[in-house]
Amino acid sequence: MKALVFPGQGSQFVGMGKELYDSRKDIKDLMESANEILGFDILSIMFNGTDDDLKKTEVTQPSIFIHSVAALKAVNGLGAEMVAGHSLGEFSALVANGVLSFDDGLKLVSERAKAMQAACDANPSSMAAILGLEDAKVEEICSQISGIVVPANYNCPGQLVISGETAAVEEACVKLKEAGAKRALLLPVNGAFHSPLMQPAQERLAAAIEQTKFRKATIPVYQNITTTAISDPDEIKKNLIAQLTGPVKWTQSVQNMIKDGANNFVEVGPGKTLQGLIKKIDGSVDVASAI
Questions:
Q1: Ramachandran area for residue 280 (φ above 0: left; ψ -120 to 50: alpha; else beta)
Q2: Within 10 A of 272 (CB to CB), how many other CB atoms are there?
Q3: How many CB atoms lie within 10 A of CB 1?
Q4: Is 289 considered catalytic here?
Q5: Which of 144, 233, 245, 253 has the most CB atoms at less than 10 Å from its CB?
Q6: Which of 11, 63, 87, 125 is catalytic?
Q7: What is the tens place of the pLDDT at every residue in 3-12?
Q8: pLDDT tens across 95-141, in order?
Q9: Has keyword Transferase (predicted)?
Q10: What is the model's pTM?
Q11: Does the annotation mark 194 as catalytic?
């Protein structure tokens, strides 16, 4: 069984999407419509901007979404039987399975990015990557820290990202290294994504989601919060809102997709990050890029 997976923030690069833009008129038209929807020339930033331009959350998230949906269009969906996305990538997955239109998906992604940036600006905070320690140990130590610090991204066995108040994250990093972590690296972000500190962003995104039409899924999406196959649009909405303050359970999602029959994972969008994570989760499955 084939599964399509869609990347999240961090997979952007200068020049992203230019080959897709030049490849077909229908893809060019789709991508150009993004400028009108967003009210600024995001394509010029994607094609010719700087790394710093692309790192701005309000640019990064729509750029990755646009690239992912354009790549999906280029390969005509590939006849997959299930989809999933890593954090932001869940919105691209919901276009792939017919739940969201491109226009509605892009509007939600833009609102999500602005809401997350506003939450970061209001309460500067941090994230850190913890390598070489069991998930349960990371969870245990985070729970013992005074202040807010929680597991945020379960990327693959031995790679878990934590998120929260800067002092709490820094204290957790010290204790996690003492407990045997190979590395505890502060990430170059000024916000605590997928933590309780994203509550203001969650409320703003929830209002936008409630005003958006969600259709019944043509194939199930394995959502970050539940890690299981979901098709009901109301449940998808609820889980998409919960995702902003809850952890991205990527390891568990991929494991459940494999348990349910997936043996061929195709990454749709910029980069190859998810392919590397999936091979670390289960080396027996096939992974590839869509384009």
A1: alpha
A2: 14
A3: 13
A4: no
A5: 253
A6: 87
A7: 999 999 999 9
A8: 999 999 999 999 999 999 999 999 999 988 999 999 999 999 999 99
A9: yes
A10: 0.96
A11: yes
